[in-house]
Design brief:
This protein is 10% helix and 29% strand. By secondary structure, it is mainly beta.
Length: 136
């Protein structure tokens, strides 16, 4: 994992779109079934849109039926951090990028094997990097 990144809100506003800033820096959520990656099936990796840290791999992605990209594990358990979220009158586990602190989504205990976890992630928090294929 790379060194941690700390920036002011003004610095993040200069680098992110208004929607990315709302979700990543202010713990927002994009509407279900609207993000670019909820039904993406291409091979590749998903990185933090704010800092580029690789977070999830397409081999860990599954269709949860929720309308958000869902993964049963992270590429590196140290890349994604969790904390208690009591917003909106409920208790959930928020997940964020360990490197820059950007809000990614939430973690639920209803995913498939082998982990039983569901990382429910906002598409706007991610940048997709297609897998490199061998031309031969």
């Amino acid at each position: 994992m790379s060194d941690n990144i700390e920036k002011t809100d003004d610095q993040w506003r200069e680098e992110l779109t208004p929607e990315q800033f709302r979700v990543c820096r202010k713990q927002g959520t994009e509407p279900a079934f609207t993000g670019a990656y909820w039904d993406k099936k291409d091979a590749g990796r998903y990185a933090c849109v704010a800092c580029g840290e690789p977070l999830f791999d397409s081999t860990q992605k599954f269709d949860s039926g929720t309308g958000w990209p869902s993964f049963f594990d992270a590429i590196d358990p140290n890349a994604v951090a969790a904390r208690e979220d009591r917003s909106h009158g409920m208790l959930r586990t928020e997940v964020h990028c360990q490197r820059c602190g950007s809000h990614l989504g939430h973690l639920f205990p209803d995913g498939p094997a082998p982990t039983g976890q569901r990382y429910c992630i906002n598409s706007v928090s991610l940048h997709f990097m297609p897998a490199v294929t061998d031309p031969d």
